[in-house]
Amino acid sequence: MSWIVEVSESERVRGGLSESGVRAAHEAFRQHGCVLLRGAFDTASVDVLQREFRDQYGMLDADQMQAQAEQPAPNPVYWVGERRYEITPHMGGAFGDPRLFAYPLLRGLLHSLLGEAMRLSGLTLVVSYPGAEKQHTHRDHPCFSMIRIFR
Question: What is the pTM of this model?
Answer without folding.
Answer: 0.77
